[in-house]
């Protein structure tokens, strides 16, 4: 009897080995697996975005600091020129910093996200919005003139945070809060307060770059 | 019809392959970054990466940045092909193609 059982087990094993084991998935399992892939890609893209955005934010924190220091030290008629030069440096620097990421996307064979074009478009929209708001509202209080860009930047980052990547929401909220604190608590030295608030932007940039 | 790959289909291995496949044109991601993307634990990620490496789907790169040891992973051409085929299989299944 034992011999018979052994022979049967052996025969069963041989039969099993000879069979090609084919994995069969249901439609639901396949859909769930595709959703997993999509979610992983989304998470990867967000982290990649943080890594690209981090150094750009650090660059803009320096520009921000120099711009507000200029507003604190230079006469008001030179503010516009100072900001124009600094903004140009910031835009060119941002484009340069985005290049490696664009190259990597092209090398992977994936469809380009046109990040550079989108960034230029976003900056142009922000610039036009700030200039239009100044033109329409014509703030006479220097403190309002100084605080407006801070609130604007805070709002833009917060909006990006709500719709695209969560970390920007925290960065926007910090910029918004720092600007309001400076506006109400230190209006006499607001330019220097805003310049020192750039440390917050720089730290945020490091936080993003390390994501 | 494309073929299923039972090695890749395991949920965490599928996420690892998806992450590495997307990153294949750039700098290979570090272990910590891969952990964030896949939301895996250290041990889990390590063991599944080893399984994929043994299958020839993934290459593990170990070096040092200064004094800090660094582990990175990248998808091989065999792995990329297997992943593409597996995704094609999943799509065909969902779309009901025989």
How would you describe this structure to a colleague?
The complex is a heterodimer of chains A (211) and B (98). Chain A has one domain (48-209). Chain A has helices at 2-18, 27-73, 79-107, 115-137, 142-163, 167-185, 190-209. With 211 residues, chain A is mainly α. Mean pLDDT of chain A is 82; it is low at 15-21. Chain A is 84% helix and 0% strand. The longest helix of chain A has 47 residues, at 27-73. In chain A, helix 6 runs antiparallel to helix 7 (190-209). Chain A is elongated, with a radius of gyration of 28 Å. Chain B is an alpha+beta fold and 98 residues long. Chain B has a single domain (6-95), classed as Arc Repressor Mutant, subunit A, CATH 1.10.10.10. Helix content of chain B is 57%, strand content 16%. Chain B has helices at 6-9, 11-22, 31-38, 42-54, 77-95, and strands at residues 58-65, 68-75. In chain B, strands 1-2 form a two-stranded antiparallel ribbon. In chain B, a hairpin with a 2-residue loop joins strand 1 (58-65) and strand 2. The longest helix of chain B is centred in the C-terminal third of the chain and has 19 residues, at 77-95. The mean pLDDT of chain B is 91. The interface between A and B is medium-sized, with 27 and 26 residues.
Q: Helical stretch count of chain B?
A: 5
CATH class of chain B: Mainly Alpha
| SSE topology string of chain B | HHHHEEH
In the sheet with the most strands of chain B, the strands line up as: 1-2
What overall form of chain B do the CA principal axes indicate?
elongated
Q: Which whole number gives the mean pLDDT of chain A?
A: 82
Q: Work out the strand percent of chain B.
A: 15-25%
Which pair of chains has the greatest number of interface residues, and how are they split between the two chains? A-B, 27 and 26 residues
Oligomer: heterodimer
- In percent, how helical is the residue content of chain A? over 70%
Which fold name fills CATH's third level, the topology of chain B?
A: Arc Repressor Mutant, subunit A
Query: Helix/strand-derived class of chain A?
Result: mainly alpha
Approximate helicity band of chain B:
55-70%
> Quick one: biggest sheet of chain A?
none
Largest sheet of chain B: 2 strands, antiparallel
Low-confidence parts of chain A, pLDDT < 50 over ≥5 residues? 15-21
Distance between the termini of chain A: 66 Å
Number of domains of chain B: 1
Number of domains of chain A: 1
Rg of chain A: 28 Å
